[in-house]
Amino acid sequence: MEYTINFKLDGGKDLMAPALAGETLLEAAKKVNLAIDAPCSGNGTCGKCRVKLLAGEAASEESRHIAPEEYAEGHRLACSTRVTAPATVYVPATALAYQSRMKVTDLEGARERAVFTSLQEELRVMGLFGDTGLSLVEARLAEPALDDAMADSERLVRALGETAGVAGAIQTSRYALGKLPKVLRESGFAVQCLVRNDKETSLILDVFPLGAAPKLTGLAIDIGTTSVSILLVNLETGDPIVGGNAGNGQIRYGADVISRIIESVRPGGLERLRRGIIDECIRPLVTELCRNAGIAGEQIYRVAVAANTTMTHLFLGVWAEHIRLEPYVPAFFAVENLRGQDLGIPAHPDAAVVVAPGIGSYVGGDITAGAFSSMIFKKDSLSLLVDLGTNGELVFGNAEFLMACACSAGPAFEGGDISCGMRATDGAVEACAIDTDTMEPRLSVIGGAGQKPAGLCGSGLIDIIGELFRCGIINAKGKYSREGKRVQRDEWGIGRYVIAFADETEQGRDLALTETDLDSFIRAKGAIFSAIKTMLTMLDFPMEAIENVYVSGGIGSGINITQAIAIGMFPNLGLEQYHYIGNSSLSGAYAMLTSQKAAEAVAGIGKSMTYLELSSHPSYMDEFVAACFLPHTDASLFAPRA
Amino acid sequence: MEYTINFKLDGGKDLMAPALAGETLLEAAKKVNLAIDAPCSGNGTCGKCRVKLLAGEAASEESRHIAPEEYAEGHRLACSTRVTAPATVYVPATALAYQSRMKVTDLEGARERAVFTSLQEELRVMGLFGDTGLSLVEARLAEPALDDAMADSERLVRALGETAGVAGAIQTSRYALGKLPKVLRESGFAVQCLVRNDKETSLILDVFPLGAAPKLTGLAIDIGTTSVSILLVNLETGDPIVGGNAGNGQIRYGADVISRIIESVRPGGLERLRRGIIDECIRPLVTELCRNAGIAGEQIYRVAVAANTTMTHLFLGVWAEHIRLEPYVPAFFAVENLRGQDLGIPAHPDAAVVVAPGIGSYVGGDITAGAFSSMIFKKDSLSLLVDLGTNGELVFGNAEFLMACACSAGPAFEGGDISCGMRATDGAVEACAIDTDTMEPRLSVIGGAGQKPAGLCGSGLIDIIGELFRCGIINAKGKYSREGKRVQRDEWGIGRYVIAFADETEQGRDLALTETDLDSFIRAKGAIFSAIKTMLTMLDFPMEAIENVYVSGGIGSGINITQAIAIGMFPNLGLEQYHYIGNSSLSGAYAMLTSQKAAEAVAGIGKSMTYLELSSHPSYMDEFVAACFLPHTDASLFAPRA
User: Fold this and answer.
1) B616-623, long-range: CB within 8 Å, 24+ apart, which pairs?
2) What local confidence, expressed as pLDDT, does residue A98 receive?
3) Cβ–Cβ gap A332/B154 under 8 Å
4) Which of B458, B31, B91, B424 is nearest to B247 (CA)?
5) Which residue, among B421, B351, B366, B414, has the nearest Cα to B132 in the 3D structure?
6) Distance from CA of residue A586 to its chain's centroid?
7) CB distance from B182 to chain A under 8 Å?
8) B168 touches chain A (CB under 8 A)
9) CB B227 within 8 A of CB B103
């Protein structure tokens, strides 16, 4: 039997989906291209696909995410509710927020720009800044006449050949050809050309009247499994103009790369995943950035991309199946011959495209870019880079060697498998302090004044767990061990701590951290610590050999390192040895965008970095199990430092 | 007032067009993307837009193309009929035939292939054949393992680096990357790669299992103002597989390049013209060729294009306005950096694209390609190339020098401004003999047995006018001077010769050649002869200096040279000095497709050929006027040869 499900979206829009009896509401929604959040791939664990049955009937499985009184009011998980009859279903904004919320920030003069300004300084000192391979060259042409009827393009090339700074064979791009006749005549044959200098050839990308002040821009793109961050950069000054981020549109196919790969090998899947990241995420975001900066897409003349191996494959439409099958071999590490029009996003068709190289199936271009932007590849001292994304990746080494590994931390730090987790956008609790006596929390929430809390992002999660542990509200196993009005237990006896009561939250229901969430988180933090320990042990270094730790990832405004050490996530080193460097993948892409030498350095890192496959390392499992306590089964590792 | 015009198409389709009072039916039809033939741009002269008013009313101007009894039956010219009320209008197939008829010919073993087989022989002798810049290289890869987890692309490049024949840096195209993982594993890591060798880099375009027999194909494209001809060629053997031609979809904007340029500079015009040639002509034709040959578009790895200067601009979407404005300067002569995906037609995204260079606004790549394929650029003897297309172009010279000019012959040879003219497709009269006494004609018609005549193509036109002149039916001024059942005069006294009566023709109405048509033709042939004479005089050569004449153009199966000389179109040389070489532009594109050296030779011709601007030459007008007689005012030029 086929029924019609009327999805009523927050904001008033109605979508009519035909659904077969037995299909889930999540599946029915997909048919009309309504992507309800389901970072757990629809297996009922994340609780993010909560909708409300307004009319009609449907068969629901019980869920720990829906309290009995909520069930009575019509609340359901879309993934666990099957169609049995026609129904009307309300889809709240929260059920769409994880994936799609787009945020654009004007960076000219903004606080968010500081990280790039200081990186710019550092790169400048190293001679790795400003060589974009693009130059703006003036040319004054003899006007054509009946006895000098040379074509415009050849006339321009002749004039440029007489100018210093343009070497080798000069060619004109089709885009520049298209507008050349008009620009020459509007400018009285005095123009400036944007030239892309390749090894043997100089390609005229664009042409403007002399005296015009064209905006020459480029894109630095970080494609994360959960979030995408993009900078639109002024290529003449190297300054970011506007930045944006949005949820990766692929998230409807699961929070982690494995779910994405599985979906991608289904019929039509590769194209669906490419659409998810390009049509539904990067293209609209770049379009918005362009609108904001007042430029046309064709004024994007260079693009730098950093992403993990799976994301790079899916972004380029490359078959990714073998990334997840032993012996875990990707289709490529590096790709070199791309131009703007290969990408399917707004850009000049002949824009140069640089992609950070991966070194293994689970250590991708985001990590080589991060090893660059953290500068650990240039330092004599031994450094550790910890990149906290949907996965966790580590790089250890110095100017002489670099070793990297990946640990399956899961999507905890980006909120994926935490019931109240969310990305670090408006409404996310990013920091928290708990009063030891009263157990009352004080929250810091991302967003404008009056923003109510809606969930926890990575940094908020670390903070709150650190506080719960410090206050003795939870024990070393992550179980609630004190009683009070904020500590509650459900009918199955699973404890939870209410961070904010229903009347204080965005959704109007309690925001709480359950023991199931704690368990997910402890496994995630255990994965990271045990990976660090395994890698150093293997290289025969004690933990104390680490001189500096660079923590990166888009998990909030930063991490409370004291808490992260206290719960056994990071090694017990001095606070002054820790540096939070934000999104090191985006910073690396930014460096590659603004400098060809930087891009070459990242390529060099890709070639020299050693990949350690943790899963095949005999002691890793033992280390992991030992780390799944607060702070650790070996308490001496976290004893107060002298 | 707005009215609805119901266009009933031959074949049964109905189109409802909203039309303002005063608009012509031609304009109303364009609004619903119905392109009624109008090679004269809708000024009432060509008579090709004949439709029939079935119901309703409309205001019509009188036309010599519609007889009074036809008018009474509802026949109208769409361009000269204005909307005054709702109406129902029948559009016969003939009103759509000039532009869109597509014809595909299987060339494997066909007669039409002979011209390419003999060209192939000639090119092979000259060492200008078979170097496509593509090679199929075998590679056997070590299978990946946990301790050798190099990515597929890098693994392939490593294996190729150990193979002879692949030089320089090796890169993998995005297309090949996309399928590489599957092909490697399906083939047991034994593959063959299609590699494009550029100056410094080798790019892997595609990858196939070892032992597979992939079809490697390329396209040779000739874009004429009226017709487009395309060959799909097997790049391994160099043999054409299938050929096709179709009307240039831009023809609704006028028969000549000037009308097209004028339309292209109107708002949105450039895009409309690009759609006309790509979306409505080349893409469907190539799709049909691919279907016919059983290949996917991505198996087209190299594309060669030859076209006149305006067509090349409009094909690439380049602003063409200045081609027609003094001093007649195109945007470019040569364009070098194109890849398949720049074209918007089926092809591998990284296919190499070569475009024959132009040398002036009215001597384009079709002529440099023709100067190559006619081989006049290699000969010691003095040759003349006469290319009869919508325009007429000439090249004179030998291995030491080449000079080219264009003459405004108008579209007569492709049927454009001849009332009964048509392209050389089914139904076209391509040859004719007239009995001197009875004045009865014997026609040879293109098409299968029983094909009724529908019009005259260029070769038929020359033949019939030659016969009319020989039989004394017309005089030296192109006026009818005998009487009989086939010679008739209309109410204005304009004479016509009935080639076929209504009951013998495709359309069911008389097929006749009017004195207006004769006038158009005599101007066209006069333009050609006077151009030849002016160019030779300027170079101080007598006509007799021409040792060989190569006649090209897609105007039928060939030209009756005796007739062409008798009417004063071609110089009075020996018949054995004349060679009809078919479509020399397509042959040139074919050579450029099958050989990089040939493409370089065409580029060399573009650089060395001199362009003569006839219109600025003082004696040209006098020569032209003198040539507008049959055969010429100076009869001694066409006196019987000793």
Assistant:
1) B616/A146, B617/B534, B617/B538, B619/B534, B619/B537, B620/B530, B620/B531, B620/B534, B623/B530, B623/B533, B623/B534
2) 58
3) yes
4) B424
5) B351
6) 9
7) yes
8) no
9) no
Q: B328 in helix, strand or coil?
A: coil
Q: Write out residues 281-340 of A within 8 Å (CB-CB) of B.
A: 316-322, 326-338
Q: Cβ contact (<8 Å) for A145 and B327? A: yes
Nearest in space to B389 (alpha carbons), one of B551, B522, B250: B551
Q: What are the tokens at B606?
A: 């573009």
Strand order in the sheet with B511-514: B487-489, B495-500, B511-514
Mean pLDDT of chain A: 91
Which residues, 6+ apart, have CB-to-CB distance to A639 below 8 Å?
A: A572
Chain B CA closest to residue A617: B146
Closest approach of A169 to chain B, Cα-based (Å): 11
Token pair recorded at residue A177: 């050809």
- Complex ipTM value: 0.88
Q: Give residue A622's pLDDT band: very low, low, confident or very high (50, 70, 90).
A: very high
Two tokens, residue B547: 């040792």
CA distance A507 to A510: 8
User: Are A199 and B200 within 8 A, CB to CB?
Assistant: yes
Q: Is the peptide bond before A631 cis (omega within 30 degrees of 0)?
A: yes
Q: Nearest-CA distance from A329 to chain B in Å?
A: 5
Which chain A residues are Cβ-neighbours of B144 within 8 angstroms? 327, 329
CA–CA gap between residue B168 and residue B196 (Å, rounded): 12
Helices (H), B234-376: 257-264, 269-277, 283-293, 309-315, 365-373
Provide mean pLDDT across the span A21-42.
82
Q: What does pTM read for this prediction?
A: 0.88
Contacts of A331 in chain B (CB under 8 A): 151-153, 177-178, 180-181
Taking an 8 Å cut-off on Cβ atoms, the answer to whether B337 and A146 are in contact is no
B63-74 residue pLDDT tens: 778 888 888 889
Contact A414, A531 (CB under 8 A): no
Nearest chain B residue to A199 by CA distance is B200
Helix/strand/coil percent split, chain A, to 5: 35, 25, 40
Name the token pair of A155. 């006339």
Whether pLDDT at A161 is above 80: yes
Tell me how far apart the alpha carbons of residues A156 and A181 are, in angstroms, rounded to a whole number: 11
Query: What tokens were used for A245?
Result: 């981020």
Return the pLDDT at A433: 95
Amino acid at B432: C
- Phi, psi (deg, nearest 5) at residue A362: -120, 10
Instruction: Please give the pLDDT value at position B99.
Output: 54
Domains of chain A: 2-100 (3.10.20.30), 103-127+217-355 (3.30.420.480), 134-209 (3.10.20.880), 375-409+528-635 (3.30.420.40), 412-521 (no CATH)
Residues, chain B:
642
Helix (H, G, I), strand (E, B) or coil at A405: strand
Residue B558 in tokens: 């060939």
Per DSSP bridges, beta strands A190-197 and A201-209 are antiparallel
* pLDDT over 80 at A92, yes or no: yes
Burial B2-17 (b: 16+ CB within 10 A, else e): ebebbbbbeeeeebeb
* Tokens coding B149: 């987890």
Q: Alpha-carbon distance A251 to A277, whole Å?
A: 9
The overall average pLDDT reported for chain B is 91
- DSSP percent split of chain B into helix, strand, coil, nearest 5: 35, 25, 40
Whether the predicted pLDDT of A167 surpasses 70:
no
